[in-house]
Write a structure and sequence with these properties.
The chain has about 375 residues and is an alpha/beta fold. The chain contains 10 helices and 6 strands; from the N terminus they run αααααααββαβαββαβ.
């Protein structure tokens, strides 16, 4: 609720500020006949719409879980960000069309001292707004706010270019405003595309921040019975809503009650420290009876290029079966070929055993 309150409050500040800026710039553009200033005003109006969408997306994401969405509605924020990106793209294309029209049929604007002061003030206001919104976005981990803050800082650069073209026009008589407008359009389109691609990555499921992953692993390994944490998978159901699973390596002689107590302790510590829900904690048994075999397999596997990790070693003397997982670098040209080579080398070393190697993913 606190996160939602911060996002809504920050977005309202952006809405009010951008409405005022758009009004002043539109008035300046109408009086002076400057297409660049008018397009800058339109850009501010698109920011207003973006903030409205951010509020709606945040409200939807904050809805309680229900029968159809048992894990909540957090991903609604991603949809909101996509809509914001589409709005920015549309504003950029519209600005580009108008600028091209002005290049074909140019008109010379007439800037007054007051209009220049207004545009200059807008630059300062946008810088302050951008810093404020970005800071709030980072504070509550809101991709929409961070994007809006970056957009506001970029808008300050845009407004500064408009001011510069106005000064050149007024004091040097060179009319560059239509070209500046086209440059503005290009940058707006680029910002929209980048925002959309980032959001698509979130929807597809991009790699979780490496520092968080290592921090969670570290917390898990603080347990005295855990000698390693592997296969940590974190699923994002919206900003700050991570649910995951992990395998931990523990002594083979641990009893069910001890394992149960350990799992509960790990899950509690990870949630308390990192806000991550571990929905499942599987176990790998560390059986010292097969320590020499494990060391030999590790040596064989490590001879191959691109091996990042080997874990989950298990030897079943009754079935004469060796099972383990390997993580291979994504940069390898043919990971399956390397996996086959590893399997073959281990089979040669232990011809009487059935070898089962699984290629794991580097999360």
């Amino acid at each position: 609720m606190e996160r939602e309150r911060v996002i809504v409050k920050t977005s309202f500040v952006g809405i009010v500020t951008n409405i005022l800026l758009a009004g002043f710039k539109a008035a300046v553009g109408a009086v002076t006949g400057s297409i660049a200033v008018v397009l800058d005003a339109i850009n501010n109006l698109s920011d207003v719409l973006s903030s409205v969408v951010t509020i709606i997306g945040t409200k939807l994401a904050g809805k309680k879980p229900d029968k159809e969405h048992p894990l909540g509605h957090g991903r609604a924020e991603y949809i909101g960000t996509m809509i914001v990106a589409a709005i920015i793209l549309y504003a950029g294309v519209a600005a580009g069309v108008e600028s091209i029209k002005k290049i074909i049929n140019p008109t010379k604007p007439d800037y007054s001292l007051v209009s220049l002061i207004i545009v200059g003030t807008a630059v300062v206001v946008k810088i302050l707004l951008g810093r404020y919104v970005s800071a709030m976005g980072k504070k509550v981990n809101s991709g929409s706010l961070i994007a809006s803050g970056s957009d506001a800082l970029f808008d300050a650069v845009v407004s500064a270019s408009v001011l510069l073209s106005a000064l050149i026009c007024k004091f040097m008589g060179v009319n560059l405003e239509a070209y500046v407008g086209l440059l503005i359009a290009v940058f707006i389109i680029r910002a929209g595309i980048e925002m959309m691609l980032d959001t698509v990555d979130d929807i597809l499921g991009k790699r979780i921040d490496r520092e968080l992953v290592e921090a969670v692993r570290g917390t898990i390994c603080e347990n005295e019975n855990v000698s390693g944490a592997y296969d940590l998978i974190l699923h994002s159901y919206g900003p700050g809503r991570l649910i995951g699973s992990v395998h931990v390596e523990i002594p083979a002689e641990m009893k069910a009650y001890e394992i149960d107590r350990m799992q509960r302790s790990i899950a509690e510590n990870v949630y308390t420290k990192h806000g991550v829900v571990l929905a499942g904690i599987g176990v790998y048994s560390k059986d010292d009876r097969h320590g020499d075999m494990r060391d030999k397999v590790n040596e064989i596997v490590r001879r191959h290029d691109g091996v990042l990790q080997i874990h989950g070693f298990f030897a079943d003397p009754e079935k004469k079966q060796i099972v383990f997982d390997v993580i291979l670098d994504f940069s390898l040209a043919d990971r399956n070929a390397v996996l086959s080579e590893i399997s073959e080398d281990v089979r040669k070393a232990f011809p009487e055993w059935d070898v089962n190697v699984t290629m794991d993913v580097d999360i």
